[in-house]
Amino acid sequence: MPGPATYQVTVIAREPLVRLGVRFLLAGASGQADPRFVADPDALAAPGACGGLDARATVVVLADDVETSALRRLCSGWRTVVLAPTAALALAAIRCGARGVLTAGTSPAELVLALQIAATGGIYLGHEASRLLGPAPRGTPPGGPSRAGGRRAVARLAPREVATLRLIAVGLTHSAAARELGLTEATVSTYIKRIRHKLDAGNKAELTRRAFELGYLHVDARPATPA
Predict the structure, then answer these.
(1) Domain closes at, from 64, 98, 133
(2) What is d(CA 78, CA 45) in angstroms, rounded to the nearest whole number?
(3) Are residues 129 and 167 in the same domain?
(4) What pLDDT does 185 receive?
(5) Both 16 and 115 in a single domain?
(6) What is the DSSP string of the chain?
(7) CATH value at residue 27
(8) pLDDT tens per residue, range 26-52
(9) Which of 6, 27, 92, 187 is a Cys-bridge partner for 183, taking CB atoms 3.0 to 4.6 Å apart?
(10) What is the CATH number of the domain that holds 198?
(11) pTM, whole model, 2 decimals?
């Protein structure tokens, strides 16, 4: 199993006390450089721009409530972990494609785990964040509602596809999920292709987001460290 990914942490936080709290949480991120703090999302240059950070080696921690447009820009350009104080921000973070969603009261160990998973391309939904969001609404059909704008209804997933989806969504690689399920890696890849088609999801972030919205992911599930 490979060691933890090497990455730089950039924290977006305006209030000094919030910065102090995040710095304390990050004290457990052994082997990482000291976090960089900025007061506003606009302080981050576009990835790859002159003077900008390398998006492949940076995880952005958002500790402030921001406009949806700013959140969407962050999540589309950076591997973003959101410390959400409210259910509204937690849900917005999921919809915008955040790699990690936690509450402000998370533990140092959980934040470090979320950062490591985000740095390797996985997605982490914290236990307390999932409780903020609550269970899927009653009466939602197993296949979920149709997409807005007249897009086709989402098809029902088979039990084996649901099991595969849950493992991939919490950060396992295809090979690790295959070992967990007793399948070949090729079979897992085939399942994921089918799932993406059924859920009308173009990438992993959207796949996980759609699965959560439709109730296919248990909101109290504890993610695993990627193999």
Answers:
(1) 133
(2) 11
(3) no
(4) 92
(5) yes
(6) ---PPP-EEEEE--SHHHHHHHHHHGGG-TTPPPPEEESSGGGSPPTTSTT---GGGEEEEE-S---HHHHHHHHHHSEEEEEESSHHHHHHHHHHT-SEEEETT--HHHHHHHHHHHHTT--EE-HHHHHHH-SPPTT--TT-PPPGGGPPPPPPPPHHHHHHHHHHHTT--HHHHHHHHT--HHHHHHHHHHHHHHHT-SSHHHHHHHHHHTT-S-TTPPP----
(7) 3.40.50.2300
(8) 876 555 667 889 888 888 766 554 455
(9) 187
(10) 1.10.10.10
(11) 0.59
- Give the mean pLDDT of 65-90: 87
- 149-177: pLDDT as tens digits: 333 444 577 888 888 887 887 677 888 88
- Domain assignment present for residue 98? The answer is yes
Is 2 inside any structural domain?
no
| Mean pLDDT, rounded, for 46-64 | 71
Task: Name 90's Cβ contacts closer than 8 Å, sequence gap at least 6.
Answer: 82, 84, 101, 103, 129, 132, 133
Assess whether 118 and 38 both reside in one domain. Answer: yes
Which residue has tokens 């979920």?
Answer: 144
- Residue 72 tokens, joined: 């969407």
Q: Please list, in sequence order, all residues whose beta carbon lies within 8 angstroms of the beta carbon of residue 210, skipping any fewer than 6 positions away.
A: 144, 154, 199, 200, 201
Q: What is the pLDDT of residues 182-219, one digit of tens each?
A: 899 999 999 999 988 888 887 777 777 777 766 666 44
Both 125 and 33 in one domain: the answer is: yes
- Most distant CA pair in the chain, distance: 51
